């Protein structure tokens, strides 16, 4: 019984290592279902009329980050 467990464990370990090497070689980032939905152009998953506070804060940070910087300096 122990030998079956060890064979299974090492087989799974090898499969995970091969998958990791594949991602490293392809230089891709791992994306979950959220990443997959955004590639389809779907920004909002839920049907809420009003976003939650966490989403509002994220949107505020993104808007502030995307604002162009205005550099006002006095030159003599």
UniProtKB/TrEMBL annotation:
The UniProt record lists the keyword Transcription regulation: no
Family annotation (InterPro entries): NqrM
Keywords, in A-Z order: Membrane, Transmembrane, Transmembrane helix
Region (Disordered): 57-76
Spans traversing the lipid bilayer: 6-25
Pfam families: NqrM (PF04400)
PANTHER family per the UniProt record, alphabetical: (NA+)-NQR MATURATION NQRM (PTHR40691), EXPORTED PROTEIN (PTHR40691:SF1)
Protein name, as recorded: (Na+)-NQR maturation NqrM
